[in-house]
Write a structure and sequence with these properties.
The complex is a heterodimer. By secondary structure, chain A is of the alpha/beta class. Helices cover 34% and strands 18% of the residues of chain A. Chain A has one domain (29-304): 4-Layer Sandwich (Purple Acid Phosphatase, chain A, domain 2), CATH 3.60.21.10. Chain A contains twelve helices and 16 strands. By secondary structure, chain B is α+β, with helices and mostly antiparallel strands.
């Protein structure tokens, strides 16, 4: 067993300290963390009510250095309360380190850290978009991927801040008019292709539309201005906060300030050159986008890794 | 020299002069290569591009990136994202029908059962962003004619020193996490010749793969200019079957456009030649 576990309890502070240094934890420790996290998450409702002040974080996608940069900009836990809106894994180089750190922080500060499920927190997606391959490469097997994806099934679907701001990963669903309809969803499963659970993690706002639309890809919804107004009215709220879409400036506000997108992966995929932000909701309900750029460690890492690939240069 | 190009000004498309392209990154025998690598477009720029082109833009659009190959006589061929996207099928059904994600049918059926609301179906366009783009020519300076010549691969396989190499992404879309569409341009300049490759790579998970390659070859000595356009397409299943059995992680193969390009059948190849104007 690892020195991080003794008598069935995990030394979370030491885990967090090591993870801040980007050290990989032993497979047995990750397994124990996921088990503990499931025990904690199963008690959470599909709609968690929390109080401001809280800083809301959008997609991270395994960009570990940028998550640390976000903490430098917005304050390290537990000094700042955080609500993460999902898409922790895939695409970036450090999905494992990112997910392990967030799991430890959740276990250590369960009432100061909240983790919402994103569409990438699923077996189907994370098998194709990086997390699975990273687990195979860094642990030599997929046990860690299995542990984490089992844990994903327990993540909550939505959070309400001060009864006023509704937070989800993707967006609204034609099957959800009131938040009570979310509370009755059986969320402890792989994200299905269809239904309210799928829509909450997948759908996108469409500023050109009033109503719901069907994506031109043949599956998934877009939702317009009237839908947003109606939802806020029915549920007596003022704002919808979501992530899921890349914004060049790190955030985007739509529908007369009724909906915000927050994006927290700067220089997305290490090539987009975009900014990122964390949305700070104050105790009095003001919203402030704290914008930040990519962490300098990304460039150092790239230079370390760079092997002059002549095969690429001699393309045909 | 003038070159049509999306500018940073409020108006979407412009005629560009050699001054506005800046200094060439490399020059050889009267030939020059210009390139630019910048962040993705801002929301305002995307709105303008959307208005001009008339379809939703890809998630990541590098509208300020370009590679231009130009000769001092005025001949040029450039590659940029906005002109590439302008050739995506914008209305109705592209050839072979509109692609749907793998679970579309199930989704549509379930939707009928569970939701009672009437929905507007968005106007269809080719959301895979498949484009037949073969570059943006200098107006009235560039003509192409058919040729039986082909790009001399033997010369390009020689390990001649590369004086300049650049690679810029034009656009990329994750297809709502149903795959990838990516357009990328690479160029390499050697002492005696250059090769440029503009590749569109599309993967729709569990449905299909597509490649559209445009290659531009220039021999500096005699100003031979050849352009080869290749169309490849195959089903997801067929490509997947070619992954070696020993592979531990098949996902790595299905993300590797170079590996996939070699495994796919060629549907169409067209080679054309151009010449510098004699004036």
């Amino acid at each position: 067993m690892s020195d991080l576990i003794s008598g069935g309890s995990i030394d979370l502070d030491s885990c967090i300290e090591r993870l801040y240094r980007r050290e990989k934890l032993a497979e047995s420790v990750v397994e124990a963390l996921c088990t503990k996290a499931k025990e904690l998450l199963i008690k959470e409702s599909n709609v968690i009510h929390i109080k401001a002040p809280v800083s809301v974080v959008g997609d991270i996608h395994g960009q570990f250095f940028d998550l640390i940069e976000l903490f430098r900009v917005g304050g390290f836990p537990p000094n700042t309360n955080y609500l993460f809106l999902g898409d922790y894994v895939d695409r970036g180089y450090f999905s494992i380190e990112t997910m392990t750190l967030l799991t430890c922080l959740k276990l250590r500060y369960p009432n100061r850290i909240y983790l919402v499920r994103g569409n990438h927190e699923s077996r189907g997606i994370s098998q194709n978009y990086g997390f699975y391959s990273e687990c195979k490469a860094k642990y030599g097997n997929v046990n860690v991927w299995n542990c984490f994806t089992d844990m994903f099934d327990y993540l909550t679907l939505s959070v309400v801040i001060d009864d006023r701001i509704f937070c989800i990963h993707g967006g609204l669903s034609p099957n959800v008019h009131s938040i009570d309809q979310i509370k009755v969803v059986d969320r402890f499963k792989e994200i299905p292709h269809e239904g309210p659970m799928a829509d909450l993690v997948w759908s996108d706002p469409d500023p050109e539309k009033e109503d719901f639309g069907i994506s031109t890809r043949g599956a998934g919804y877009t939702f317009g201005a009237e839908i947003v107004k109606k939802f806020l009215h029915v549920n007596d709220m003022v704002h919808i906060l979501r992530a899921h879409q890349l914004c060049e400036q790190g955030f985007q506000v739509l529908f007369d300030d009724r909906l915000s997108t927050v994006w927290s992966a700067p220089n997305y995929c290490y090539r987009c050159g975009n900014l990122a932000s964390v949305l700070e909701v104050s105790a009095t309900g003001e919203r402030f986008f704290n914008v930040f750029d990519a962490a300098p460690e990304n460039e150092e890492y790239r230079q370390q890794q760079e092997q002059h690939n002549t095969m690429t240069e001699y393309f045909l | 020299m003038s070159y049509r190009f999306p500018s940073h000004d409020p108006e979407p498309l412009y005629s560009f002069t050699s001054e506005s392209l800046g200094k060439p990154t490399v020059s050889r025998n009267g030939w020059s290569v210009y390139s630019s690598k910048r962040p993705i477009m801002t929301a305002d720029e995307i709105d303008r591009a959307t208005a001009r082109i008339g379809i939703p833009m890809p998630e990541m659009i590098f509208g300020k990136n370009y590679i231009v190959v130009a000769h001092e006589s005025g001949w040029s061929l450039g590659f940029n994202a906005v002109d590439a996207l302008d050739l995506v099928v914008k209305h109705g059904n592209p050839e072979g029908g509109l692609v749907k994600v793998a679970y579309s049918e199930a989704w549509m059926n379930d939707k009928k059962k569970t939701s009672d609301e009437v929905h507007q179906v968005v106007k269809p366009f080719d959301w895979t962003y498949t484009t037949s783009y073969q570059g943006t020519p200098a107006p009235s300076k560039v003509t192409w004619e058919p040729t039986s010549q082909s790009i001399p691969l033997d010369k390009l396989r020689r390990p001649d020193p590369i004086l300049f190499f650049e690679e810029v992404v034009l656009f990329e879309d994750e297809l709502g996490d149903n795959g990838i569409a990516m357009a990328e341009v690479k160029v390499r300049v050697m002492e005696e010749r250059l090769l440029l490759l503009c590749r569109l790579f599309v993967r729709v998970d569990d449905v299909l793969f597509r490649i559209r390659d445009t290659r531009l070859f220039i021999e500096f000595e005699d100003n031979t200019i050849l352009r080869e356009y290749t169309v490849k397409q195959d089903s997801y299943e067929n490509v997947k079957r070619k992954i070696p059995h020993s592979a531990r992680d098949s996902g790595l193969f299905l993300r590797d456009a170079n590996w996939i390009a070699e495994k796919m059948p060629v549907i169409q190849t067209v080679t054309e030649k151009s010449a510098l104007s004699s004036s």
